[in-house]
Amino acid sequence: MTLRRRSLLAAGLPAVAAATLPVGPAAAQQRFASLYMFVPAGPGGGWDGLARAIEQVARTAGLVGNFQFENVGGAGGMVGLPRFVAQRRGRGDALMVGGSVMVGAGITNRSPVTIKDVVPVARMTEEVGVVVVPANSEFTTIAQLIAALRANPGGVAVGGGSAGGTDHITLGLMLKALGRNPREASYVAFAGGGPAQAAIMGGQVKAGISGYSEFAEQIRAGRMRALATTGDRRSTADLPTLKESGLDVVTANWRGVFGAPGISAAQRQALSDLMSAVHTLPAWREMLTTRGWDDAFLTGTAFGEYLTRDIAATEGVLRDLGLAG
């Protein structure tokens, strides 16, 4: 990918910020002296992981001088999103991490502020989900868990991300495929990956669903048992997909970054160029491999069009599952 080179001022940085940029080799690459990164979820989850990965790659490459982070979790981003919209309006030096979970959460919570109120900058990753149970669970195979859900959905508490998000949708589709009413689900929503992990390992729920990277460390350590993944094909040789286990269910979770409302076209382009520069780096490709993320890079008008289609599709699914009006 060829990066467009432009002056820092044309990229939308204020003159004061440009004046503080260092001289030397790093100055030729640096796009922002400072960047505010807002994560509408608690530490330890997928959005936080993406934000920290962007920071690591961008700072090491000299693309950004400093990052300022803020985490505000709750309701699939619906608690933090209004804060970002209100406090960063018109600021071209701010990014918010979000994704498919936020699309569903806005619909389910009937939030007056939704993902439509921020500016799409770049879709960065896509990740299949994984169905897990505690290490000492009575369920040792996905077939056993499926049988329990078929017999009594309400008796199998399943933990995951926010209500109406990808994890919740996955469980609803699983029950629908089993001929059960998705409203029978006993779904326990958590504000972030950290609390969900603790609840699963502590036996507060019988199973969990999330992006594979959120549970990977616990799976490797033997504190969780992975039963199946949610992709169209196997992510690892030893784990079946839900589809090959008899459920016609395929889901994935995309994540990306957004600008604040009210930014100019030049400011949006500067943020887009920054993410394009990150995406081209070998360190980013290594990060994708290490985290188990699929490259789903999409920016500009194409990302905006994708988001519009995804919102419409998610509304349809949630309506079918009885999770939206």
Could you characterize what this model shows?
This protein has 325 residues and is of the alpha/beta class. The chain folds into 2 domains: 15-125 and 254-320, D-Maltodextrin-Binding Protein, domain 2; 128-229, 3-Layer(aba) Sandwich (D-Maltodextrin-Binding Protein, domain 2). Helices cover 40% and strands 22% of the residues. The chain has 12 helices and 10 strands. The chain has helices at 15-19, 25-29, 46-60, 80-87, 100-108, 142-151, 166-177, 193-201, 212-220, 265-280, 282-291, 300-320; strands at 32-39, 64-71, 94-99, 119-134, 157-160, 186-189, 207-211, 224-229, 252-259, 294-299. Strands 1, 2, 3, 4, 5, 6, 7, 8, 9 and 10 form a 10-stranded mixed sheet that branches. The relative contact order is 0.19. Mean pLDDT is 89; it is low at 1-28.
